[in-house]
Amino acid sequence: MVSRLVLEGIMTNYPADLFATGIGLVVLVVVTLSTVKVTPALPLIDIDGNELEYRDRLGILGFPGRR
After folding, report:
1. Cα 41 to Cα 43: distance, rounded to the nearest angstrom
2. pTM > 0.70
3. Mind listing the pLDDT tens digit for each residue in 32-59?
């Protein structure tokens, strides 16, 4: 949001949303990679607290030919 507001004032001829999306993506990746050791991701769990497998997580259809 801040990068969009700053870019609107600097680059008036270009769409600020396009550049702000790129800046946001870069910030997301940098923060994720810098905090991965401090706060690791939690596993997927169901309502009872049992861990779920990461296999076939694309829904009921998945990719054809992959079973």
Report:
1. 7
2. no
3. 899 988 888 888 888 998 988 877 666 6
Residue with tokens 């939690």: 42
Say which residue the tokens 């949303």 belong to: 17
In this structure, what token pair is assigned to residue 6? Answer: 């700053």
Contact 16, 4 (CB under 8 A): yes
Q: What range defines the domain where residue 7 resides?
A: 2-35
Number of domains in the chain: 1
Structure tokens at 50: 């049992």
As given in the structure block, the two tokens for residue 57 are 């997580």
Matching residue, tokens 């990719």: 63
Residue 59 within a domain: no
Contact between 58 and 64 under an 8 Å Cβ cutoff? The reply is no
Residue 13 lies in a domain: yes
Q: Which of 49, 32, 30 is nearest to 41 (CA)?
A: 32
